[in-house]
Design goal:
mainly beta; 44% strand
Length: 75
């Protein structure tokens, strides 16, 4: 667990995209990791507690304005 946190620091970002139980949390801050849980904060300042056993990936967040990701664009 501490090894994962050390690797996250190498991403050089404060904002992350977290995938947990097939749900994606974009542009979140990781506030604390303790006892197998991760406390994150969203752009709307909501705090969410995630079970680390269900987290499938964590990546560096993109600097995109919140909610502007286009989906299913048809030409």
């Amino acid at each position: 667990l501490t090894y994962m946190l050390d690797l996250l620091k190498k991403l050089n970002t404060e904002i992350y995209d977290v995938v947990c139980s097939k749900k994606v949390y974009y542009n979140v801050k990781i506030l604390e990791v303790k006892d197998g849980f991760m406390l994150i904060e969203t752009k709307k300042e909501d705090k969410i507690l995630l079970n680390l056993g269900l987290v499938s990936s964590i990546s560096a967040g993109k600097d995109i304005a919140f909610g502007t990701i286009p989906k299913n664009i048809r030409l």
